[in-house]
Amino acid sequence: MPASYPGAVYSPRAVVNKVGVSYDPTQLTKIYAEDKTKPDAEIVAIETELGTNPKGTKADVKTRLDDVDTAIGGKISKTTAGELAAMTEKSDLSDDDIFLIEDSDSANAKKKTLLSSILDYLTTIFDDRYSKFGNWLMDGDITFGENTSLVLDSALSVDGKYCGITEAGTAGAALAFGDLCYFNGNDSRWELVDANLSDGYDAKLGICVLAAAGDGSATKMLLLGKIRADSKFPALTIGKPAYISETAGEIVTAQPTTADACIRVVGYGNTADELYFNPSSDYIIHV
Fold first, then answer.
1. Where residue 131 falls among pLDDT bands split at 50, 70, 90?
2. DSSP assignment letter at 57
3. CA dist., res. 230 & res. 269, Å (int)
């Protein structure tokens, strides 16, 4: 039967051996029906796989394959090392941009995802695991370059807010937010300080920013920074110093005048309610 491909898949004429003839592959000088039917079956399989229009709109199959090869080569290199170099870089990403990924849960199946999905995932990671960079433990030095700084919040918004350097500790008594405290070296606990306390006014100072229920409770002290305690603090004078009060746990804007009382600056007023806490290491005793 004459060839009809690619107009149609080849339909070979049936061929069989004569009666009494059995195929023997060792007989190299004889031709059997199997010598004809097997190549015919292969031809039919190939033509079926290619379909009846293997050249598409091109002049022939070779031209079509050459054009496909050229088109693919212009997008991605046929070698792994050249794939990235062959891609056109896009710097202005948008939420609908698509990324190819390998899904490790599905035997590394190739899948796609959107930039918006990647950003949502990263946000979840930072919010859930690091609480917007909260509670990070740095295990190396942090170097500030020229003209860079650690910036405190410009203005504390409401009562009960603070920012700065803090230290966790243990309370030696019930403490409230804004209480002025000293670190008691006898038991390593934070306790209320006043200008008449002989073993406290000259010690390490802090202001409570985590209230404590009582002796032995966890607390946190602001060692340097800004704190707003509207009801706890007196009306502060902007730019002027505040001192240890003769009342335990409080600050005052006027120097103590009682004999033997300590005069020690603990900070300066940023506003009437906001204190820049920076306790001086110097003090004098009123005569």
1. low
2. T
3. 12
For the chain, first and last CA: distance in Å?
Answer: 128
Distance (Å, rounded) from C-alpha 54 to C-alpha 62? 10
**105 has a pLDDT exceeding 90:** no
Helices (H) and strands (E) in the chain, counts: 4, 13
Q: Would you place residue 142 in the very low, low, confident or very high pLDDT band (cuts 50, 70, 90)?
A: confident
With tokens 């990324």, the residue in question is 99
Any idea where the domains of the chain sit in the sequence? Answer: 161-285
What's the pLDDT at 127?
A: 74
Write the DSSP symbol of residue 182: E
Establish whether the linkage from the previous residue to 54 is cis, with ω within 30° of 0. no
How far is Cα 180 from Cα 200, in angstroms, rounded to an integer? 11
Q: Return mean pLDDT, the chain.
A: 88
Find the Cα–Cα–Cα–Cα dihedral 209, 214, 215, 217, rounded to 10°. Answer: -60
CB count in 10 Å sphere of residue 222? 23
pLDDT at 138: 73
Indicate the SS3 state at residue 1: coil
Residue 239: band (very low, low, confident or very high) from pLDDT cuts 50, 70, 90: very high
211 has pLDDT over 60: yes
Q: How far apart are CA 25 and CA 195, in angstroms?
A: 115
Distance CA 206, CA 215 (A): 17
Q: Nearest-5° angle of CA 204, CA 213, CA 191?
A: 20
Q: To which residue do tokens 């919040």 refer? A: 153
